[in-house]
């Protein structure tokens, strides 16, 4: 072996040993307790807080009808994506802090908590929707539901259609809401229409369309209105049809959501409330014959008691059939304050003496 070959072999061994040391050094984890928070730790809290603020502002503007529903839904989807990203960043930054001891644990904890709170809202809503029928349109007439007129102009192309979905929704409604049926009143169509308007005023609904029924053309009356949910302000459209039949009127109500595939029972509850109030208005307008007869009998008995032979009114009123009173009517009235005028049968001369 020549000296040159020995030198090359020695250099190769040294290089191999150096590469091994560098590999071990690169895979070794160092403690970095005094190091500032990492990039992920800083931005996970910032992203989560920004998403929370965006969600609150969007919900408030939509409830005040200052933000269209499609725009609000787009922002809500962006907020959910931001919350998922913030949660992933918090997980990675948390593992880094656990291993290296780097600063930023408070930031990571804040980001993770806010992100989980944001994700809990859609997750809880989805779980709650599983307990309700998957429909967004209900009607008391499933064969020929009332048609919307004003809602056609109000709904955008990305909203739910105003056409009734068909037999699939009808089967779900029959199984879930069997109590939703047409209301038939023994009144004319005009009277039933007025009862419906009174019920809507009582329930504080503002109508957007009022078409009274026309008896000459035998055309039904229609009433349309819009209602909003309490928290998010989601819009539901309602149409009421009053159809006159033989000496009676038939009232049908349809309520449908503009957005979403599940109404959480809100439309069925609204239809029940309107039907109940219309029935209450009808019962209040029907005269109670039995009650009126009872009131008349009670008034007669009260009058007989007041005007009876032993009543105070009869005691105050003189009985002209009595002989002593008839005789007293022909006498001259006694002076005021004299005892003779107050004691019958005593002569005035005796006391004058």
TrEMBL record:
Sequence ranges of Polar residues compositional bias: 1-12
Stretches for region Disordered: 1-21, 290-353
Segments of skewed composition (Basic and acidic residues): 312-327
Keyword tags: Membrane, Transmembrane, Transmembrane helix
Pfam families: DUF1499
TM ranges: 47-65, 71-93, 105-128
InterPro entries listed in its UniProt record: DUF1499 (IPR010865)
Name the UniProt record assigns to this protein: DUF1499 domain-containing protein
């Amino acid at each position: 072996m020549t000296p040159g070959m020995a030198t090359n072999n020695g250099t190769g061994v040294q290089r191999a040993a150096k590469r091994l040391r560098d590999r071990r050094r690169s895979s070794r984890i160092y403690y970095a307790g005094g190091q500032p928070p990492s990039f992920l730790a800083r931005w996970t809290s910032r992203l989560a807080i920004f998403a929370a603020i965006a969600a609150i502002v969007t919900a408030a503007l939509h409830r005040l009808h200052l933000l269209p529903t499609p725009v609000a839904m787009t922002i809500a989807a962006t907020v959910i994506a931001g919350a998922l990203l913030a949660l992933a960043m918090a997980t990675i930054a948390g593992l880094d802090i656990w291993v290296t001891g780097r600063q930023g644990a408070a930031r990571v904890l804040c980001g993770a908590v806010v992100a989980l709170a944001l994700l809990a809202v859609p997750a809880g809503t989805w779980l709650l929707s599983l307990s309700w029928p998957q429909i967004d349109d209900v009607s008391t007439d499933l064969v020929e539901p009332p048609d919307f007129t004003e809602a056609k102009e109000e709904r955008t192309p990305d909203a739910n259609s105003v056409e009734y979905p068909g037999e699939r929704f009808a089967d779900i409604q029959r199984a879930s809401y069997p109590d939703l049926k047409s209301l038939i009143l023994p009144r004319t169509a005009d009277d039933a229409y007025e009862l419906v308007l009174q019920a809507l005023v009582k329930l504080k609904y503002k109508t957007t369309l009022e078409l009274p029924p026309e008896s000459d053309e035998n055309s039904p009356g229609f009433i349309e209105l819009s209602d909003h949910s309490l928290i998010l302000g989601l819009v539901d459209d309602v149409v009421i049809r009053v159809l006159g039949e033989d000496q009676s009127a038939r009232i049908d109500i349809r309520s449908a959501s503009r957005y979403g595939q599940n109404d959480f029972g809100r439309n069925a509850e609204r239809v029940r409330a309107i039907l109940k109030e219309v029935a209450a208005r009808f019962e209040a307008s029907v005269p109670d014959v039995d009650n009126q007869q009872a009131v008349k009998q009670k008034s007669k008995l009260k009058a007989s008691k007041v005007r009876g032979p032993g009543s105070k009114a009869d005691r105050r009123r003189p009985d002209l059939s009595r002989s002593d009173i008839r005789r007293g009517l022909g006498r001259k009235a006694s002076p005021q304050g004299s005892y003779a005028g107050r004691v019958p049968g005593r002569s005035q001369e005796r006391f004058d003496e």
